[in-house]
Amino acid sequence: MAEMQGLVERLERAVGRLELLSAGSHRPPGDCGEVNGVNGGVAPSVEAFDKLMNSMVAEFLKKSRILAGDVETHAEMVHSAFQAQRAFLLMASQYQQPQEGPVASTASALSVLSLGPGLLPPPPPPPPPGPPPLFESEDRKEGSSPSRSALFAQLNQGEAITKGLRHVTDEQKTYKNPSLRTHGGQTPSPTKSHSPGPKSPQSHPPKKHAPVLELEGKKWRVEYQEGRNDLVISETELRQVAYIFKCSKSTLQMKGKINSIIIDNCKKFGLVFDNVVGIVEVINSKDIQMQVMGRVPTISINKTEGCHIYLSEDALDCEIVSAKSSEMNVLIPQDGDYREFPVPEQFKTAWDGSKLVTEPTEIMVSERPPKPLS
User: Is the pTM for the entire model greater than 0.90?
Assistant: First the structure.
């Protein structure tokens, strides 16, 4: 509250100084006298300001005094500011427009503002001009650089520019000296020294994992088996599943009835099973053989290269779903032997006038299928 009262007093002192300056012109207050050679009353700007003071400002002061307290104090500060502004307008209207030439300096502005403690400090000086455009200076530098001038001078030589090239002998040509290809390219130039590059990191051998063949809850885990052709799971249940992972050069026989089987990331792996009530999936594998002794409704092959499926008489209604795979063959029993039927890998698509029609291309049927696993 004390700070606001101090501000009101400072504004009142400033108004008093401006009124003294106005009175120093030896004219009665409110009378412009002779302005720019014309004798008249109050200037239009002062008259318009008085209308504003007598209407909106007066209404603001009246309502603020009713509210009292800080609102009334703030209103008195606003009133003092308006009075100071009117005194300034009145004084400005009583003098002729000054002539143009020097710009007011910071020192002169500070001397004017130092009339009293109630006035606000002057604004800071404008910032210095920014740096010149970056690209323009760079273009000028590049245009005048000696290296660029030398480059254009070489290009203007025409056919004479090839005189500076070094002759490559037959011993340095890779197509005439195959031994250079095995040693990493051409022989180094005698005029240049080659520093040895960073050595490539040595490749570490793959980590060996312990083979796994165990029942974990309801899942049979067969993992990291290698070179085993005697793997057998004889005790199976309908609720169990089997997951075969990272096995190579091995064969597994599963007896009984199981829910589903998954073969993942295996190579040269064989599987013989009796019955599967769900699905047999082959994923990311290579050179897989499986033989169905009983029944299986669906076999899925995905991202696999080489898969031979031997079906039994009871599994001829099995559905085979394949995607992104190759070298797939289904072997059907006929007259005590098996006949091989390849799964289509190529398809042709044509427009029949209303839609696209896709059908497999014809593939020759093999007459000599491989022998079954059992």
Answer: no
